[in-house]
Prior knowledge:
The chain is built from 22 helices and eight strands. The protein has helices at residues 40-60, 72-76, 94-97, 100-111, 125-128, 146-158, 171-180, 188-192, 207-215, 222-230, 233-243, 257-271, 273-277, 281-284, 289-306, 317-326, 329-332, 337-342, 348-356, 359-372, 376-386, 393-412; strands at 5-12, 18-26, 66-69, 88-92, 115-118, 136-140, 162-166, 184-185.
Amino acid sequence: xxxxxxxxxxxxxxxxxxxxxxxxxxxxxxxxxxxxxxxxxxxxxxxxxxxxxxxxxxxxxxxxxxxxxxxxxxxxxxxxxxxxxxxxxxxxxxxxxxxxxxxxxxxxxxxxxxxxxxxxxxxxxxxxxxxxxxxxxxxxxxxxxxxxxxxxxxxxxxxxxxxxxxxxxxxxxxxxxxxxxxxxxxxxxxxxxxxxxxxxxxxxxxxxxxxxxxxxxxxxxxxxxxxxxxxxxxxxxxxxxxxxxxxxxxxxxxxxxxxxxxxxxxxxxxxxxxxxxxxxxxxxxxxxxxxxxxxxxxxxxxxxxxxxxxxxxxxxxxxxxxxxxxxxxxxxxxxxxxxxxxxxxxxxxxxxxxxxxxxxxxxxxxxxxxxxxxxxxxxxxxxxxxxxxxxxxxxxxxxxxxxxxxxxxxxxxxxxxxxxxxxxxxxxxxxxxxxxxx
Length: 438
C-alpha cells in the first residue's frame, strides 16, 4: 500500500457527546504494531508522522482532546510536545510498556502534565506499576468478556481512572458497554451514531424542506424562496443570524430577508441550507445538532475538494458538495432516504450514489465514508479507481477539517459591529426595503 492516511475518529460519552478524537494512522505508520524494534522502517515512519504533525497540529488538532498512540521513536522525538497539554492524551500499548526507555519517557511526560491512556489494558504486574500515571484505560469490547469488562471498569473507577471501551460495532455491544459503566465509547457504531431530529415523514411538507427543494432547482425562483422563509419565523431568524455572523463579516447588519438573500446569493444559500434547520432556539439545546452539522459540512467539503483530482466525474464540484451534504438527510428527517430524495431535485447520479452507491459518484461517496471509518484498504482501492493520488487525500481531509472548524467557530460567535457608525451611501439599505417579519 502506498497511501499514508491519518484520520480522526470520535470518542463519545454515554450521552452521545464527543469527549475527544482518536488520531489513527496508516501507511507511513508501519511502526504502530507490536514490534518494538527500532528498524529503519520505524525511523522513516516516525519521521513522516512527525513532519505531518509539525505542519498540521497547530491549526487542525487544537481545541479538542486528541488520543494518539506513540511508539518508542515518536516518544524519543518528543512528539507529544507538538501539542498543548490540554489537547493531548498520550496512548501507549504493550510495545511501549515493555521498553524501559519508552516507559521512562512516558512517566516524564506525565510529570509534565500530559495525560496518559493505555490500550488493551490488563491488570498484570507490568501494567500495575503505571497506575499512578494513567488517566484512561482502553478496553477492547471484542476481546473482553462481560465479567472482566465489569470488574476492570469498577476497579478503574475506584482509582479515579476513566474507561473507554473500543471496537464497538453494534447496538448490542454499545448498550453492553454503557450498562457496564463505560466513560467513553469508540468504534464504527459510535462514529455513525448521530442524534436524529426524529421528525416524521410529514416533515417533508415543512417550510424548511420546501425551501431545500426550492433552492436546489435548476432555476430557483427567488420570490418563492423569499415567501417560504418569510412564512416561518424560525427560518427568518436562522437566515438573519447566519448572514450577520462573523463568517460573512458584513460591515452593516442585514435586516431583511431580501438583503440576506442578496448577500448570500442562491448558490451560498444552497450550501448553508442545513444551518437554517439548526439555527433556532430548539436545535441549539440539542446536543446532537453540532455533530450533525459538522458531519454534514465535513462530508460536503471533502466531496467537493476531492473533485479537484477525481477523473471522469459526471457532476460538478457544487453538486459534489450537495452529495456530501445530503448524505446526512436520514439523520434530519425520519423517513426513508428514497422518499426524501424523490422530493429533492438533485442529479440522478447523486441519487444513485446516496441510495445504491452506484457509479463514479457512488465511489466518491464511498471514499469519503471509508475515510471516516479508517478502512485503509478500501480507501486506496477507491482512490485508484477515481484517479485521485492517495498521497494527497490526508492533506485534503485536514484542510477540510480546518475549514469546517473555522467556519463553525465564526458562525457560533457573535459578530461585533459598530452599531452607531454612519453607513456609506453604497452600504446603506435601499430605500423602501422590506423589514424582517416579527
